[in-house]
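Below is a filled-in request sheet from our internal design queue. Each sheet records the structural input a requester submitted and the sequence that came back. We keep these sheets so that new team members can see what a complete request looks like end to end.

REQUESTER: design group, bay 2
PRIORITY: normal
MODE: inverse folding
CHAIN LENGTH: 265
BACKBONE (tokenized):
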């Protein structure tokens, strides 16, 4: 009984730590004139949030952030899939060197990567474009998608593919009916990591976008210098909402998938 109570207490503390910033954002975003030492705001209103949603720049930033994060996630999955399959299933000379090469972007300072990409993209005409920013976001997202998918393929049984091939299935059928179905939960998790990393990118977006690509992190950093708590909180609340929804949808899918697998066995 005491162990269960301790577990519930720790879970409650964890949920409280995670929820407190969101609660504060919501209170500031839907209130006005909240000054110390008042415990609650003097006036509740939705006008700060309404002004935010009616701002053209905010809607543009939200749309471009969603577009870039979604595109970077899909590209990361497409590029990392064959690399992760090879690293997870095959033992070959130079495998450790390949791992090191893939994870170099996680230890190199982002400013150095961003400046190098900026010079290169200026030469090929991709600087200041959404395509250039999306490609730049692949640098921090690819290591995580490769690592996640390679862990999935490390437990993958290729005999299912061999059996399907022996029964007359062609490579396309094997990929969609066997491989993709077996690794799809791993793809969901890898896509989640890629989305969250791309969604929160500020420095690469600033360097590659050159001020012409407007995302929510760009707006959030600029609004902080304004010093308006209500506007900052409303924009912060809008910034964290899509990741929370994506995480909730992913957790729901993984929970349903796990329950379905348990029912099969």
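RETURNED SEQUENCE:
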């Amino acid at each position: 009984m005491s162990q269960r109570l301790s577990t519930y207490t720790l879970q409650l503390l964890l949920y409280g730590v995670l929820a407190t910033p969101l609660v504060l954002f919501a209170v500031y975003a839907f209130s006005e004139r909240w000054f110390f030492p008042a415990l609650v705001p003097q006036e509740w209103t939705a006008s700060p949030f309404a002004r935010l949603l009616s701002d053209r720049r905010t809607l543009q930033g939200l749309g471009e952030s969603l577009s870039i994060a979604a595109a970077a996630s899909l590209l990361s999955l497409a590029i990392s899939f064959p690399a992760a399959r090879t690293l997870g299933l095959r033992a070959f000379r130079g495998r450790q060197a390949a791992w090191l090469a893939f994870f170099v972007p996680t230890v190199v300072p982002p400013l150095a990567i961003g400046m190098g990409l900026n010079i290169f993209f200026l030469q090929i005409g991709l600087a200041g474009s959404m395509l250039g920013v999306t490609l730049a976001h692949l640098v921090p997202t690819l290591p995580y998608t490769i690592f996640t998918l390679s862990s999935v393929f490390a437990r993958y049984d290729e005999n299912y593919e061999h059996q399907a091939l022996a029964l007359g299935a062609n490579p396309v059928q094997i990929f969609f009916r066997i491989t993709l179905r077996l690794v799809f939960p791993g793809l969901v998790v890898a896509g989640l990591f890629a989305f969250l990393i791309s969604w929160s990118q500020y420095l690469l977006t600033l360097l590659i976008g050159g001020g012409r690509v407007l995302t929510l992190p760009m707006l959030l950093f600029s609004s902080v210098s304004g010093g308006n708590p209500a506007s900052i909180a409303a924009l912060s609340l809008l910034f964290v909402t899509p990741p929370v929804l994506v995480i909730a949808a992913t957790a729901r899918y993984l929970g349903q998938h796990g329950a379905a697998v348990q029912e099969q066995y």
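SHEET NOTES:
- The longest strand covers residues 31-32.
- The chain has a mean pLDDT of 84.
FILED BY: M.R.
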